[in-house]
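Good morning,

Attaching, inline, the backbone tokens for the sequence recovery test we're adding to the shared suite. The designed sequence is right after.
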């Protein structure tokens, strides 16, 4: 018997009522989805019960795991017998991201995101990043627009500022798809903090909708980059503020776009039920008059989320609906990233992913292969993701040679892209084809992939 010194932790573990090993597994899951490189076991929890304290920067991960196990989103470190991280009046952490001031949140997110993890000026324990919150991965029943503050004294910002922000977003979006979200996310974070937030605070009543729509677009894009870089919590924070600003701008297109991104993030992190609900919420946001191309984009995400959650029949029905909508869309594609540029190649990617989740591996391989062929060379990150997922599917079909050749075909894309999502797929490939490394083709490509992973570590 161990001597219990942390009675608060002991009480919460008793409430959970599962073995310490299972609690450790939940902590490790939270750590993995937030790109934190540590693991715990039952022995670790036993040490904490005797009075040892985890490293301060790891405590938020443990608290989030206990919140999920206890279904207690308000749980704090003190409830587990540990000291709380320092707080200050300008910091929104701890506040509900769906209700706190969006400009304060954007400023905080940008300041966290514009520095590499080891150079954040605020070195207080646990303050280097935000964690993905399962409780926040749902749209509240009353998620209306935040109160509209009066413009700050001094100059007022108008429509020209909104146009400027949109144009800058277009530049960042192009860089994101060419080189991956991790390449320029610090730059977009700095632009949000140093330019967009001050502009929002000086928005005139007449220009407010246009400015908030432009800011919502950029916040969505920053979230997309952060998610691609493996910063799940920061991405979630950006996404939530994008939804709220889209509501304030009365822009259903942006709200649906961001809810779709939140659904994709949840699915990729393994929270399939939340992903399904978020994708369905995105669809409910669309009016009957929504453009068919945008509706197809949202519906295909619903199909992917429903398949991931085990609803294969519903997913196939949704795929057919997405195909019909895309066929009805006008031939022109707007050059933006909010559904207006959704293409047949992109739909083939989601169709392949959906069919793979449903267990239809042969047609899934055909769709992913066709999607990869249809993607232009400038879309390196998309090509990298599609190619690595195609290779993973070929491994599932016992085709290690084909998987290696697929990776070889996108090798020039992989060397240019900096993306935690791509690196995660590459890591899984190396683990899954380990038994086939005696094959010369697999061995050569494995050596190439291992070098890429070491280079980015």
């Amino acid at each position: 018997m161990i001597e219990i010194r942390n009675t608060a932790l002991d009480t919460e573990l008793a409430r959970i009522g599962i073995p310490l090993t299972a609690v450790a597994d939940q902590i490790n899951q939270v750590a993995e989805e937030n790109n934190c490189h540590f693991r715990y076991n039952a022995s670790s929890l036993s040490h904490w019960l005797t009075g040892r304290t985890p490293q301060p920067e790891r405590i938020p991960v443990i608290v989030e795991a206990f919140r999920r196990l206890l279904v207690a989103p308000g749980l704090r470190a003190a409830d587990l017998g540990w000291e709380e991280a320092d707080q200050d009046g300008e910091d929104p952490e701890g506040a509900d991201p769906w209700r706190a001031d969006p400009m304060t949140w954007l400023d905080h997110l940008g300041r966290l995101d514009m520095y590499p993890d080891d150079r954040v000026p605020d070195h207080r324990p646990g303050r280097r990043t935000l964690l993905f919150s399962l409780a926040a991965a749902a749209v509240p029943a009353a998620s209306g627009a935040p109160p509209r503050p009066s413009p700050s004294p001094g100059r007022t910002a108008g429509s020209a500022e909104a146009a400027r922000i949109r144009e800058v977003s277009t530049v960042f979006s192009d860089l994101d798809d060419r080189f991956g979200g991790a390449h320029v996310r610090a730059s977009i974070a700095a632009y949000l903090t140093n330019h967009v937030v001050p502009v929002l605070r000086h928005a005139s009543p007449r220009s407010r909708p246009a400015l908030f729509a432009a800011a919502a677009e950029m916040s969505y894009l920053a979230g997309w980059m952060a998610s691609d870089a493996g910063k799940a919590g920061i991405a979630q924070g950006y996404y939530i503020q994008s939804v709220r600003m889209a509501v304030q701008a009365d822009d259903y297109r942006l709200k649906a776009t961001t809810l779709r991104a939140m659904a994709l993030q949840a699915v990729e992190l393994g929270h399939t039920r939340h992903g399904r609900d978020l994708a369905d919420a995105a669809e409910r946001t669309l009016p009957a008059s929504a453009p068919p191309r945008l509706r197809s984009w949202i519906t295909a995400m619903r199909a992917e989320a429903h398949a991931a959650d085990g609803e294969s029949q519903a997913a196939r029905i949704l795929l057919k609906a997405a195909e019909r909508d895309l066929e009805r869309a006008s031939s022109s594609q707007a050059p933006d990233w909010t559904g207006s540029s959704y293409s047949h190649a992109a739909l083939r990617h989601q169709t392949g992913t959906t069919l793979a989740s449903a267990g239809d591996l042969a047609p899934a391989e055909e769709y992913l292969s066709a999607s990869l062929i249809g993607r232009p060379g400038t879309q390196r990150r998309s090509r990298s993701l599609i190619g690595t997922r195609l290779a993973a599917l070929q491994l599932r079909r016992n085709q290690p040679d084909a998987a290696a050749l697929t990776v070889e075909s996108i090798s020039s894309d992989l060397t240019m892209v900096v993306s935690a999502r791509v690196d995660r797929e590459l890591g899984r490939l190396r683990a899954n084809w380990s038994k086939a490394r005696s094959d010369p083709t697999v061995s050569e490509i494995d050596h190439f992939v291992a070098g890429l992973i070491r280079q980015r570590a």
